[in-house]
Write a structure and sequence with these properties.
The chain is mainly β. The protein has one domain. The protein is built from three helices and 21 strands.
Length: 343
């Protein structure tokens, strides 16, 4: 059994991007499973080395009725977070009481659709220590952006023990600009944090063969691409009883399988205007996590055709590798430099 870094359920809230931010037809989520927290014994020896884990994936992403071929990158790195600004702390004069460690995930997905490309990026931050009334492992911030030739979208959720603040901007009429403070039900897992959950950085924690009900908040990504409001749904989180062998371009790995089954539901349609409520199809995530430490994500998939398989991974101080010549380091994560005249 692999060690779980955090054994808890995330606090979040039901919000959405667009003219209607919640779906009144969503059932109230059940109480979250009991929460606790424990660091793996070798956690800081690995994640405290001043580097980030970069992984490249071969991506298949469904869009406009077709499955597109593209590239995905995940970046996992621990940072010191400043509560007052909810970004990485760079100010040594701030009081220690407002600084706490987080695990940051930057999750990038790029794929072409005909003449133009999509670039999707989600950033999710899970606390590594209790702070501000939030237990270790809760989501403290999620942000999402989408860029394509028709326009771009940005949304951000900041969580606290009283509620969550949503800021969103969209080029679609009916979504436009939003700035709201929304209620915050106890417990729950933002779908945006699904990779953090599968690696054990967020709850619910599962023993091998275990399964539990968990309130799940639809992701900012899914809300934007489907033009629907966010809402809570009672999902089923499961873990395989035994490891299995999985072969991907990066090699052959023993993996544990995590699934998150989100049932069908109803939501408010934010675009085009006047659509009212629509059916939202059921969605099941399958995430294959390396059984051995540090439990990298080897593959993720969803039953709508989404799939990403690992092609390379390394630990790098990538933020300092932005000068000429560092393009060669992309080979370490299985990727190549962009060719000339790439849009």
């Amino acid at each position: 059994m692999r060690p779980m870094i955090f054994l808890l359920v995330l606090g979040a809230l039901a919000v959405g991007i667009g003219s209607s931010l919640t779906s009144p037809t969503d059932a109230s989520p059940p109480p979250a499973p009991p929460a606790s927290a424990a660091l793996a014994p070798d956690f800081w020896g690995h994640w405290g080395d001043g580097k980030a884990e970069l992984s490249g994936y071969a991506l298949r992403y469904p869009r406009y009725g077709k499955v597109r071929t593209g590239t995905a990158v995940t970046i996992f790195v621990n940072e010191e977070f400043a509560e007052s600004v909810r970004v990485k702390n760079e100010d040594s004069s701030r009081p220690a009481s407002e600084i706490y460690p987080v695990m940051k995930l930057n999750w990038i997905q790029d794929f072409p659709t005909g003449i133009y490309d999509y670039s999707l990026m989600t950033s999710a931050f899970a606390t590594l220590a209790p702070h501000g009334g939030r237990p270790a492992g809760t989501t403290t911030k999620v942000s999402f952006s989408s860029q394509e030739w028709c326009g771009h979208v940005y949304a951000q959720l900041l969580f606290n023990d009283r509620g969550a603040n949503l800021t969103s901007h969209s080029y679609f009429d009916g979504e436009a600009d939003q700035s709201l403070t929304l209620p915050h039900p106890d417990g729950g897992l933002p779908e945006d944090s699904v990779l953090l959950w599968a690696r054990g950085f967020a709850g619910p924690s599962l023993e091998p063969g275990g399964s539990t009900s968990v309130p799940v908040l639809r992701s900012l990504e899914r809300s934007r691409l489907l033009h629907i409001g966010l809402g809570w749904q009672t999902a089923t989180a499961s873990r395989s009883k035994e490891s299995r062998t999985l072969e991907v371009p990066a090699g052959t790995f023993a993996v544990d399988t995590y699934t998150l089954a989100i049932p069908a539901g109803r939501a408010k349609k934010s675009y085009p205007l006047g659509r009212g409520e629509v059916d939202v199809a059921a969605s099941t995530w399958t995430i294959e996590v390396e059984s051995a430490w540090p439990h990298r994500v080897i593959r993720w998939g969803r039953d709508d055709g989404l799939e990403a398989v690992l092609v390379g991974s390394d630990r790098l101080p990538y933020w300092s590798m932005n000068g000429p010549g560092f393009e060669s380091a992309l080979e370490k994560i299985g990727l190549e430099a962009r060719p000339p005249r790439t849009p």
